[in-house]
Amino acid sequence: MAKLQAIRGMNDILPDQTPNWQYVEKCFQRVVHRFGYREIRFPILEQTQLFKRSIGEVTDIVEKEMYSFDDRNGDNLSLRPEGTAGCVRAADQHGLLFNKQQRLWYQGPMFRHERPQKGRYRQFQQFGVEAFGMVGPDIDAEVIQLSAMLWQDLQLEDYLTLEINNIGAAEDRKRYAAALTAFLVFHASELDDDARNRMHSNPMRVLDSKNPAVQEALEGAPALADYVSDESSEHYTELKNLLTQVGIEFVENPRLVRGLDYYNNCVFEWTTDSLGAQGTVCGGGRYDGLVEQLGGKPTVAAGFAMGVERLVLMLDSLDKIPESTAKVIDVYMVVVGGQLSGQAQLLARQLRAQFPEIGLIAHCGGGKYNNQMKRAFNSGARVAIVLETESNEPLTAVKLRQLDDSGDSHSVELADCGAKLAEILSISE
Question: Which domain holds residue 24?
Fold first, then answer.
């Protein structure tokens, strides 16, 4: 019988990798806490219509990438391909948006059936923040500043570039779409099949094409900036001023439109070339019409999301993950003599209660001293506590052996084990 394998694009994260993920997760959680954002959790499964109405039916995600199916009740459901739509649905359904301002964050798995590649999988982890009920560009600046602080904490600020653009209000984009469609029709022979399919249904998606030939054909296309309203332009200008005031550098990218239909006014991406070809690590913007579009009352909003896989890969490739991150075990308890198992378990329990911040493994399963010490060294522990006797009498003393280059060994009374351990590890009792 053939071994069962993970589904293509569904990646296992093994124990030697999870400390890197935990490092990023803890860092993100610290940063959102500084800004006063609160966590929200919502289901992995949603009605397919939620994503069609929010993301847009004429997008790659909805047309090609969603995992959708009919359940036993005949309801059409989808695994969530991104977090904003579910967050909006949950916040509105439970009354969080009624005449209120909300700052929310989430993390969890998302699903898209795209071609797996390094740092991009069909199941991927995403961090996101969403801010509701704040009209001015100051909240746009805040969510960008939040992401910038994360890069600082992760020591990535020198490897990322902030790109911004003003895509205007929905009415602005309608006028622009008409002009862009006329241009694309005239240049249809220079476009690929995907661009030709979209030039009538969703022409702005053509601007997002990664095909160099399409990008060349777009030279001379109408500029979106010429179609945005004065109000949107003022919002965008003020945002740029705010970013400058707080010292966040940016590049204006007139081709940046984002891949989701719900955005308006300012959109942004953090990009890097440290992973080879230029890639997006984080993206977001305003989406003032989405809550109403999904059946709620008009509510302005802004936010961003980032894929954790690419972030972890970036940190690893740049050697930005602290060595201490991999340190999970501090103490390994060696137990030589089956009659000592109970005493060893009791001591381990007492030390875990006394020092809740340390990781302690108590050896189980018996074995010779040398074999157990080998496991102690391989565990990455800093100290081995050795319980060893040939008699049936309870131990009154133990040995603490430092597992560093010094190899120092200390014999102490059992009652003094905690104090000596604290001294070696430089921790308070």
Answer: 18-169+228-317
